[in-house]
Design a protein that fits this description.
This protein is about 35% helix and about 10% strand. The protein has about 280 residues and is of the alpha+beta class. The longest helix has 14 residues.
């Protein structure tokens, strides 16, 4: 019906309008495939970003090296972890690093990015104009391969503070949970959120100098988390266990730990609280 009306109107036009009318009619009778054709978009201009990544392979024991890789930021996600995954998938499958949740919860992808400890999944890729981005393992840790470090000593120190609820008396109601007031629960804020990524401990000079004897910011933060828990009945014993010249008092309140924590926690503040409790008790 519509095509018939258009033909009638076209017949009344002057001969000079014939080419235009024939074009309109040809479009009316175009097939579905032809009507859905879209002119190709202009190719996006590539934005190249260079990454200098620490490489070391224990199977080929030679000096560690920094390898340079270039990626197109237009074809990559916004975070450093996205860039590492792209490099591993498309450029160099031998690149080794830890990652898991990609949401800043597991702490697996902790590494040093442009001189600052952080999580690769939460660290945005700097602009291409900022130059080369350097990615290295967490500092002052034994390297297993590439960006993977040995966390054995770190976890052993965490285990040494006995990070679990310890009771001398059973719950008032057998088989029921141990209740806690809202005020007491609030005292744990700023401590329970720690994800044990080791960003704080590996940014601490005192931990660099005494990694075997000083517990470090992360372990001491968790120690205070259980000391401050109203449900725990081993407060005195916990304080005595860490009342040591090296375990606790190697902290000189440099506060690199607070600057490095990707969760915004302040381990130095919790260590100071422990020292205060040592004086009071």
């Amino acid at each position: 019906m519509a095509a018939t009306l258009i033909r009638r109107s076209m017949s009344k036009l002057s001969p000079s309008a014939a080419p235009a009318s024939s074009l309109i009619l040809s479009r009316l009778h175009a097939t579905e495939a032809q009507s859905q054709q879209v002119e190709p978009k202009a190719a996006q201009t590539a934005i190249t970003k260079s990454f200098s990544i620490y490489r070391w392979n224990p199977d080929n024991p030679s000096k560690p090296q920094l390898h340079n890789y270039e990626i197109n930021l237009k074809e990559c996600g916004p975070m450093v972890l996205d860039a590492l995954i792209k490099i591993k998938n498309e450029i160099d499958p031998s690149l080794t690093f830890r990652r898991s949740c990609r949401e800043g919860i597991c702490g697996s992808c902790a590494m040093n990015i442009d001189g600052c400890n952080g999580l690769a999944c939460l660290t945005k890729i700097p602009d291409a104009s900022s130059g080369v981005t350097t990615v290295t393992p967490l500092p002052h840790m034994f390297v297993v391969k590439d960006l993977v470090v040995d966390m054995t000593n770190f976890y052993n120190q965490y285990k040494s503070i006995e990070p679990w609820l310890k009771r001398k008396n059973p719950p008032s109601t057998k088989g029921k949970e141990i209740l806690q007031s809202k005020e007491d629960r609030k005292k744990l804020d700023g401590m329970y959120e720690c994800i044990l990524c080791a960003c704080c401990s590996t940014s601490c000079p005192s931990y660099w100098w005494n990694p075997e004897s000083y517990l470090g910011p992360a372990a001491l933060l968790h120690a205070h988390r259980w000391i401050a828990d109203s449900r725990d009945e081993y407060t005195k014993e916990r304080l005595e266990a860490i009342n040591d010249e090296f375990k606790l008092y190697r902290c000189h309140t440099i506060l690199n730990c607070a600057r490095a924590c990707p969760k915004g926690l302040n381990p130095g503040k919790q260590i100071q609280s422990i020292k205060h409790l040592q004086l009071v008790n």
